[in-house]
Amino acid sequence: MLKFLLLGVILVAIYFIFFKKKRVVEDQSSQDSRWKDKREDQISNDLIPCEECGTLVPQSEAIISNGRYYCSEKCMRN
Length: 78
Fold this sequence. Notes:
78 residues, 15% strand, Wheat Germ Agglutinin (Isolectin 2), domain 1, two-stranded antiparallel sheet, 2 helices, alpha+beta, 2 domains
């Protein structure tokens, strides 16, 4: 009877050592992908005008300086 109890304890220990860690890693990777999706949703591809020349630029590609959007560094320096 003691042998079966010892075998059960060893099997439970092996389960927690090898399989529980794998689940934690999978949970973290799914949280990272959810966070990435959330960040991509916050950056829109709406067209916004450059403060200097008026060219329409996607918000994700615009250069932001002092709360203003610019199409290039050249416009930002002027």
